[in-house]
Amino acid sequence: MAAARVRSEGHTEQPQAEQLGVVRASDEGQWNAQTLTLALQQAMTSLGGLAALVHRCDSATGSLHLAAARGLLPETAEAWADLDTVQDVAPTRAVRRGGYVWVCGDSLGIGAAGTAALPLPGADGPVGVLSVLTAGPAEPDDEQRSFLGAVAAWAAARLEGLPGTAPGLTSAAGSEQTVRMGELTAALAEAVTSRDVVQAVADHVLPPFCADGLVVWLIEGDRVDVVGAAGYPEEFLSLLDRVPLTETASVTDVLATGTPRFIGSRDEFRRRYPTMAIVAEASPKNAWALLPVIASGRAIGVCVVSFTRERVFSDEERTLLTALGGLVGQALERARLYDVEHARAQELQRGLLPRELPRLPMACAAARYLPAGRGEEVGGDWYDLIPLSGGRVAMVIGDVMGHGITEAVTMGRLRTAVRTLADLDLPPDELIGHLNDLVSDLGDDFYATCLYAVFDPTTRTCTLCLAGHPPPVIVHPDGTVLCPRLAADPPLGAAEPPFEIHELHLAEESLLVLCTDGLVESATRDIDQGLAQLCRILAQAVPRIPDLWSGGQCDDVGRLEDLCDAVVSALLPAREQTDDDAALFIAHTHGTAADDVATCSLPDDPRAAGQARRYVRKQLAIWGLDDLMVTTELLVSELVGNVIRHAKGPLRLRLLRSRSLICEVYDGSLSTPRIRHASYTDEGGRGLQLVAALSRRWGARYLYDGKCIWTEQSLPAGGNAKRPLG
C-alpha cells in the first residue's frame, strides 16, 4: 500500500467537517469514509482527545496501515502511517493484546499525556485499531473506556468490506443507539448552558432507546435539585425538586455506589426503594435507568432515563447508558461554570441598565431589551431617558458592538458618560463628540453606535445626532408613521468630528420610537426593510392600544408597555433565530401649553431687576402661585443683577410652569457663573450662594449665542401644577 496521506488537521475556524482528514486505503475493500469520520469524532469527543487515528490490519502480514486521522498535521501522521506488529506503540500493543491498552507519554509530539487504543473487533480477530491521543493527565475512566469500546464495535460493524460483523451488534436498533450516542457527544461539546445539556440528552438519547422521560438531578449541599427534565408534568417534578438527600433513597444509592441501577418495573422499584413508594405511584413511568453523573472523578448527581412501558435492558444498552453518565457529567460541569458566570454577567447588565425609566412631565417612556438568541451572552445595548433643564428631555439609545462582559461594562461606561455629559447640558453634537473620544481611547477593537436626542417641549423640536445608528421613527396622533431619512455619521470609535445635527418638529402628543439594529436587521432582511416593517407594525399596532392619546401620564406608561410588547412580538417572533441583541425605546412626548410659558425682554441696565420682579409678581398671581412669589422675586433679582454686573445683553426672562416652577434668565455672554466663598468682610459675592440655597436645583446651559442660568423650585402642596406628578 502506498504511504498514506493525511490532510492538515490544524485547529482552524473552518466547519468541523472540513477539519476531518480521511485517508483511504488504495487496495481492495476500501473503508467507508463517513463511518471513519464519525468514529474519529465520537472517540475524540468522548475522551477529550487531541487527535484520533484508525488503522487497518493487513490480514496477510499483520501490519497496520493508517486509514484515517483527525487533529494531526500530515508530517505528524506520517510517523504512524505504516506500523509493524513488533513496534512498541499503542496501536500495535492493542492488536497483540487483543484489547484495550493505555500508553503514557507524548508518542507523536503533539502535547498529549498518553494514548488509548482499542482493536476494532471482527469475526476472525481484530480488523483494525482505534487510537485516541488524550490531553488529560489521567487515564480514561471506566465510563470513557466503555464508550470507546462501543464506538469501536459500532465502527467495525459499519465498515464496508469486513469479513464479518462484530458479535452482538448486528441489530439495527443497537447500531442506531450507538450512532445517536455518538451524535450526543458532538451535541454536548457544543452545549453552553445546563439547559442545553439536558436538551441534547433528550434529543439524542430518548428516541433511539424508546425512552420518553428524563430527569437530571444535581447535588446542592444536603439536597438534590432538578436542573432539567423532559416528558414529565410540572406537578410531578415539584415532588422531585429541592428534596433532601435523606428522602431520595434511589439517588443516595446510586451516588454512594457510583453504580447505575436499571429497574425494569414499578414493582421492582418499590421493592428496592420502599421509602419512595409515593413517588413511584405518582410517576407516569414504569421503567428507569438511574445513572451516576460523574465529573472530575466524583459523582455530582443522577441522570434518570425513564420508560412508560416495563422493559428488560440488554447488555449493550446498559453499556451505552452507563457511558452517558460520564458524558453528561463532563458537559454539566462545564455548563454550570458558564451558568454561574452568565448569571453574574446578567446581574451586572441589569444593574447597568435603568431599572425604571423616569416619568417626566413632558415625556414618559417604555423600553425592552432582548438578548441575542438563547441569551447565552450579555450584550452592549442600552437606552435612557434623562431630565434636562427647562423641562427638556434627553433620549438616548446605543449599541456596543460584540457580546460579553467586556461589552456590557463598556455599555455601562458609555451610559454613565452620557448622563454626566447630559447634566452639563451639552448640545447633541458636542456630547457625541465626547463619547467618540471615550470609545476611541478604549482601543481599536471597540466601536459603538448611538442616537442622542433632546426634545424641547416649548417648541416641540427634537434635536439629535446619529453615530452609525438607525434613525428614529415618529408616530403622529392621526396615525401617520414617518421614518425620516437622516444621514448618519460613522460609529463611535471610527468617526471624525464635527457631527451633523438633525432637527425634527414633532406634532403635539407624538411618539418617538428608537431601536438598535438587532430589532430591525437580520439574516433575512436588511436595515431598510426592517425599518419599513417596523413602520407597518406601528401603523397597525397603535390604533389597537385603547386611549393611547388620552388619559394621565401613569396610564401612558402602561399603554406604551403594551405597544412595546406588540412591536417585539411582531418583529421578533422567534428570538432563537437571531444572533444580535435588540433594544426598543418608545417615548410619548407632550408639548408645553402656551399658558404655561411666560417670557419678557429686559433692558440691559440696572432697571432690569425691578422690571423682572414686577413681571414675576404679575405672572405668579395669574398662576395662583402666590406662595412662591417672594422667593422667586429674590431669585430673579440675583440672576438679573449677576448678568448686569458680569455679563452682557440682550436680557430675557422666561418662566415655565410644569411639575416645578422654572425661572430662566438669558444673556449674551459665554462666561461661566461660579459660586464664590465670600468672607465676612466682603460686600458681595453671595448671590449664587443665595440662589443655591433657595432653589431645588440650579445651573447654566450654553447656547450658540450666549447662555441661560436657570433655577427650579418645588410647587407648594396643592399648587396649581397643570401636569400630573405621575
UniProtKB/TrEMBL annotation:
Keyword Nucleotide-binding: no
A Pfam match: HATPase_c_2
Protein name according to UniProt: Uncharacterized protein
Residue intervals of the PPM-type phosphatase domain: 360-589
Keywords: Hydrolase
Residue stretches making up the GAF domain: 193-342
SUPFAM superfamilies registered for this protein in UniProt: GAF domain-like, PP2C-like
Domain of life: Bacteria
Listed Gene3D superfamilies: 3.30.450.40, Histidine kinase-like ATPase, C-terminal domain, PPM-type phosphatase domain
UniProt organism field: Microbispora amethystogenes
Lineage, broadest ranks: Bacteria, Bacillati, Actinomycetota, Actinomycetes, Streptosporangiales
Record has Hydrolase as a keyword: yes
SMART domains assigned: GAF (SM00065), PP2C_SIG (SM00331)
